[in-house]
Amino acid sequence: MTAATTKRFLKDYPEALIAGVGAVFVGAGVSMAAGYPSWASLLTEVGEELGVNSGELHDLAALAQWSIQENGSATRVRNVIKQQIGVERPIPPSLEIISRLPVKYIWTTNYDRLVERAFGAVNRPIDTISGAADLALRPTPGASRLFKMHGSVERLDDVVISTDDYELYRSKRGAFLPLLQAHLSSMSMLFLGISFTDPNIRHVLSLIRESFASAPPEHFAIVRPPQRGEYKSEAEFKARSTQHRLWSRDLKRYGLMVVEIDDYAEVPALLHQVERSVAGRRVWVSGSWPPEAGADIARAYGVAHAIGQLVGERGRDLVSGAGVVVGSASIAGFLDALRANGGWDLQRRLIARPFPQPIPGASPDRAQWAALRSELARVAGVVIFVGGMKIDPNTGATVVAGGVLDEFEAAKAASSFVIPIGSTGGAAAQISDSLIGSKIDVSGLNAMRPTDEELKALARPGISIEEIVKMVSEILARIDNRA
């Protein structure tokens, strides 16, 4: 059952992300993986002051409530949160991957700033909504939105932690609820770092149940069963394991399919597979052809245009460095396909990273170009090479473009599937020659190149553009079905 659910998750959730309807819910386990305390650990000192063992208390909101009543204010509880949650911890690998996925909406009940910092590390904008009033603010164009439905460490006067806060949630923060319910009804939500001991998650699950008494939409939850080393006795471990098993089965009532793992270290590997599946739907057409070199420029343009059109017709996304000949041709073909199908979803389906060109006499920024090549290779699971020639500034002769060869190395480093059209010459021909007879896999999940026969056919002099498109189409279809 677990293997079947994992397989389904790795198929359905990337498809939701590609369609723009994949969302994420970040639970307490993600913060704990970064080194932040659990709820029980967070309130240990507070419990000791009240003569209560927080590790044995299931209603931790009540513990916070009792502290507030005893001290006459929430200052003591807020100081504990500031001291333990206000410090910066290393960003966990799972959030590093999430920050690179095409996720527009993220929900969390955590107070820390891990998600914001993960997005900041890759210079990706994110709007943080931590209070009901923030929902009225105009969103930043192109930014993802992070809904911190229980508040944030920067605004400790407005966090949800006590019994009163939960009971009065609808009156104070109720504006979050219809939006969360809308996302739960229209999107596929991935729940990370949740467990049956997390009091916050019960609050969220009740919202799902409230909206969908029957036939709730399907979501996914990556969960880890209790481990023997976490408990003092065998009896306690067995009791917790039984609770976890029953809770996992109960999640089906909320439309959550459980993807069970043995260790949190498995989460980044799973998310990396999701990232590569998303990338696999994106095709980068790499190559170059100097406009000054009239020979064969029409063929290079024609091949790139036809491949761009194929990418659009097959419902894939186009990745491009927006070069003068090959880049512009592939984009033009891609746009033709979108026009023909009545779709102009360019914001989502066209991923362009133009290479900044230096002014005459100046040298390009090699480090910046290398970073762009790495990014393009990372977001594209398939890289098709067309041509790859340039003018040598010293001799004026047409030579193989070293930058396209660098893009081939970047594609290999990112484990992308590479398809060189050797018949277009230049770097593409050189890449094709290097792949024929190589030990790089041609089948299975780790496949990264066409077969030798396909490479030789694509490199055959005189092969027509129609034949190239047909063969590339067949290769792309095979990639979709590889197992």
Strand order of the largest sheet: 3-4-2-1-5-6-7
- Class based on secondary structure composition and strand pairing: alpha/beta
CATH superfamily of the largest domain: TPP-binding domain
Q: Could you state the oligomeric state of the chains shown? A: single chain
Strand content: 5-15%
Could you explain the architecture of this structure?
This is SIR2-like domain-containing protein. It comes from Frateuria terrea. Residues 266-478 form the NAD(+) hydrolase ThsA Sir2/TIR-associating SLOG domain. By secondary structure, this protein is α/β, with parallel strands linked by helices. The chain folds into two domains: 2-36 and 89-276, 3-Layer(aba) Sandwich (Rossmann fold); 280-480, Rossmann fold (3-Layer(aba) Sandwich), CATH 3.40.50. The protein has 22 helices and 14 strands. The strands form three sheets. The chain has a seven-stranded parallel sheet, sandwiched between helices. It has a five-stranded parallel sheet with strand order 10-9-8-11-14, with helices on both faces. Helix 4 packs across helix 5. The model has no long low-confidence stretch (mean pLDDT 87).
Condensed summary:
The chain is of the alpha/beta class and 483 residues long. Helix content is 48%, strand content 13%.
SSE map:
Blueprint: H1 2-18, E1 22-26, H2 28-33, H3 39-42, H4 44-50, H5 60-71, H6 75-85, H7 93-98, E2 105-108, H8 114-121, E3 126-129, E4 144-148, H9 163-167, H10 169-173, H11 176-186, E5 188-192, H12 199-211, E6 219-223, H13 234-250, E7 256-260, H14 266-279, E8 282-288, H15 297-313, E9 317-320, H16 326-340, H17 346-349, E10 350-352, H18 366-379, E11 382-387, E12 389-391, E13 398-400, H19 402-413, E14 417-421, H20 426-435, H21 452-458, H22 465-480
Parallel strand pairs: 1-2, 1-5, 2-4, 3-4, 5-6, 6-7, 8-9, 8-11, 9-10, 11-14
Antiparallel strand pairs: 12-13
Helix pairs in contact: 1-14, 4-5, 15-16, 15-22, 18-19
